[in-house]
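Minutes, project huddle
Topic: does the predicted pose make sense with guanosine-5'-monophosphate bound?
PN asked that the exact inputs be recorded in the minutes so nobody has to dig through chat later. Recorded below.
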Amino acid sequence: MRIEEDLKLDFKDVLIRPKRSTLTSRSEVDISREFVFLHSKQTYHGIPIIAANMDTVGTFEMAQALAKHRLSVALHKHYAEGDLVRFFGAYAAVVPVFYSMGITGADYEKFRRVRAQTGDAIQHVCVDVANGYTKAFIDAIHRLRNAEPSLTIMAGNVVTGEMTEELILDGVDIVKVGIGPGSVCTTRKMSGVGYPQLSAIIECADAAHGLGGLICADGGCASPGDLAKAFGGGADFIMLGGMLAGHAECCGELIEQEGVQKVRFYGMSSRQAMDKYAGGVAPYRASEGKEVLLDFRGPVENTLQDILGGVRSACTYVGARKLKELSKRTTFVRVSQQLNEVFGPG
Ligand code: 5GP
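Predicted holo structure (tokens), as shared on screen:
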């Protein structure tokens, strides 16, 4: 047993210190980014926020709504093959839409069949496992990279610099970072495993950037300010689940409760998700996600304006004309209180 004494931080532990700025309006801030991916060599230009590959967030409808603002989606992996073929066949993507898969043989075969029927419409994939530290995961990345040299691969999840480096050397373009911070994740409670998300971002971004790779901060953003902190800490992309849940584009079932419309939102490792897609929770494992009932929030458009406005505002406060400059201009101050909640949270 060993104890690491270094301080590790979460979003709640810091605020961003304001800096002198010549910007006069948020409208002067450009929050898009351009990248050339390390391995695929594809170019990217868009607002680097990605809807999570959860079945009530990473939907076709969400992809269409977000693309209007040049945000991306990682589609959930439970779509039927025919639906994926139709979607990719008809979709003229202005920004990446990530095809998601796990690492089983069946996942890979399904990907190959969909790809074979959609020409080169799928350019970006998200290889997603709860634990990115296994040999089986690394082997799957090798196989995929060898078979598909020009595919942009986002893969994870990990939370440490050395594993980020390993994945980038193995052929991953964007390493997905986060174990346990998600809004409907119970991994930390069930297993005691995790890593404070802001420190994970800072450490993994540093490791990735040293090799020319990128990271996607996945999980734990609960407000636009958290996105600003994630970008400030070095995240190239941010993946959002809970903040985009509960909208019309999530296509969840609406439930009326005391006159209020609600929608279900659950983790992809929750009992609810396993009942739906895996015939229940296997006897050797525990559910690592939960279900919550959210107020229906209408079209995602309204929420987007808040999110993008918040990130623009952060850039203005530190004098970053472009999102790219935000992390260079970020100084975090450690705090013991974030908000004045005298009139309640929110
Ligand atoms: P959020 O933005 O809601 O805080 O986090 C979204 C992320 O939570 C997803 O992209 C995924 O990485 C993670 N996640 C989704 N469902 C589950 C789950 O059931 N268990 C765990 N451990 N993580 C989950």
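Observations noted during the meeting:
- The chain has a mean pLDDT of 96.
- Residues 228 and 311 are 5 Å apart (CA to CA).
No decisions taken; revisit at the next huddle.
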